[in-house]
Fold this protein.
Amino acid sequence: MTNAFEFDFTALDGSPLPLKAYAGQPLLVVNTASKCGFTPQYEGLQAIWARYRERGLVVIGVPCDDFGRQEPGGAEEIASFCQRNYGVGFPMTEKLHVRGPETHPMFRWLAREGGILSRPRWNFYKYVIARDGTLSSWFSSVTSPDSARIRSALERVVLDR
């Protein structure tokens, strides 16, 4: 695989979620969890979606139970939690693995592209994908979605035409 738009997911509601549907648009891909100390970052992710959606940015949440069993629920429970508590309206994938032998292929690709430190070591790692499908930058869990660093990275990919 040479770019992010070659990967496919299944949406939280069970429908296909091929990233080629977003080809030419910048993406922010985040591994998420509902019972994590970083869970309030959903609010910032929703704000990013609201702010940049009309400029083409797509935020994609990827629920994951790989770290501390902090995403124990099923699809319905995850969707309900995200909507009820944070008003999440951006696309969400089914719950999947971002580390270990069952790692989703996109997260293997992200680790190759970003280097060993870009592999998620906890929930809420953030990956900024440019319009051409390349990894532009990544941020660890501790970098808040509303940080100046993330805003700057998003402005670069949103403005790049």
